[in-house]
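DM between two lab members

TW: hey, do you still have the SdrD B-like protein entry open?
JB: yeah, one sec
JB: this one, 606 aa:
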Amino acid sequence: MSHTLARRIAAGSGALAIAFTTVLAGMAAADETPTGTTVTSPSETTTVTSTAGAPTTVTSTSTSSVPPSSTTSSSTTTSSSTTTTTTPPTNPPSQFGLTAAFDKATYNSGDDVSGKITITNTDDVAHTVHMSPFGENVDLAFPNWPAIWPGMAGVNLDPGSSVVLTVTGTITDAHKSITLWANLIVDSKSAVQTASGTASVVPTTGSIDGTMYFDANGNGQYDPGEGLPDVQVTITGGAPSQTLPAQKTDKDGHFAFTDIPSGSYTPSFSGLGGLVTPWTPWQVKDQSVRVTEEARHKVSDTLAASVKLNADSYAVGDTAQITVTLTNSGDHDLAGITAWCDRSGDSHDLGWNMAGWGDLRDGHGVTVPAHETVTVGATEAVPADAGVYGSTGVGCDFGQFDAQYQDGTARSNFATAQVPGAVASVEGALVYDKDNDGHTVGVPGVTLNLTDHASQKVVAHTITDADGGYAFSGLPAGSYDIALVGAWRLTDSESPTRSFRAGDNPGQDISVEPVTTSSSTTDSSTTSPSPTDSSTTSLPPTSPSMTNAPTTDTSTAELPVTPVDQASPALAYTGVADAASLTMAAIGALVCGVSLVLMSRRRHAH
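TW: and the structure you got?
JB:
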């Protein structure tokens, strides 16, 4: 009786151990998926929703009677136009009085062209109109136009009222007539009313008589003995445009181009050493034009510039105080120094509105005396988009811009400040293009760290999923540096710094490549060590999955099956270690069960 009981206890113990092990193993398998993103961020965040503007793409349609349209852009809008042939609408727009005409019936080929487009509402109700003009054989400009371009608000015309639009331009071919086309869109209807005006062109020729000099005595004018010899002068332009054979300056700096087609010419020079020249075109009409070109030292040769903000953090609308420091180490005064800020056009940075920049803004200028330092204060409101991006900043080039010297400017540092409050979510994938043919595969199992660009502190990390995807949520909007742990690095074309705006930031794919001996010893900006464990473990063979890109192909991709020293945190979410522990526990339980069985048999034998 007791032996039978012992056997039952042994058998039951083994079964219980196996069942218990099975349950725990199932729990471990269920936990095998990575837990996702770990974010270290301020305890309180506020979600800010914003809609940012974007360039407008306009597709216009026309009836078959409308001439081919031409893409037209202005200084106030970015647009493109595509012409298609469609059936006219059932209710075409009311007829308007529309004229397009040049101011002269005939132009010499080197003349400046001008003209007008007049729109008159002949209907008995008000209408909103848009205008899309273009020119044939003439490069047009549209000074002081209202918001009448397609994609803008348009101009509202009451019955009987008119709007007159002025155009200017230059002739591109002396042997062809010029045409001004006006495409009128009424109340955003698909049908277009058109008008055109033409003028004839008379080919003419002219000459350029010039002098190149360096103002050695600093009196702002050419003096005998200041001419620059042996400078090669090349000009490109005319109607039609062409590059003419170069001319070389004589011992007094003189040069000449004779009997050349009229038009606007852009000069270029070689043999100036480190000197720079202004970006000023030469306009040749039907006679000789005199030009005197001053070559100067680069402003950056002697001017050092820096900018500083008065705070590390702002709110949208705050007035940022900017201190500009200019130091002239040269022997001559630097006059007419102005600032050109935010050249990249980032809407969240300072430098868009220069009203508070005093004499550093266009049309003014600061003089920096020789061997002296000048400090200039500037103010500017923090723009609304700074709240969307989570930061603002300022960096400027300083030079003699009003005199058209665009080269050799002094570039300052870039000062930044936080604009906290907005929260960002980010989604993307690590992708590998093995053959550089546009076919990519996702790279799974890679640890990705995000470092705050300003503080250089790691604020978030995650591990890419089976498709190479990653996601972060609850990030303060701002700029971050990306670093990978282990066997992968960013490609050379991939910037390690990214700016994440408030709200969703989808499609943030990151191009990567395997770490090689050469890249691992020369690049530390795109890879980082494990933050928690210095031990290394090779990952099992992987089969990268396809990313969202439609050109992805996983059948032919070959990735390293044993990545170089992938740090152990990459295995933290796999559940491999838990499975091993549970297996040992199961074996121990089984041994105990077997021991009880053997003991019962011995007792039975006795």
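TW: got it. The chain has a mean pLDDT of 77. The first strand starts at residue 38 and ends at 39.
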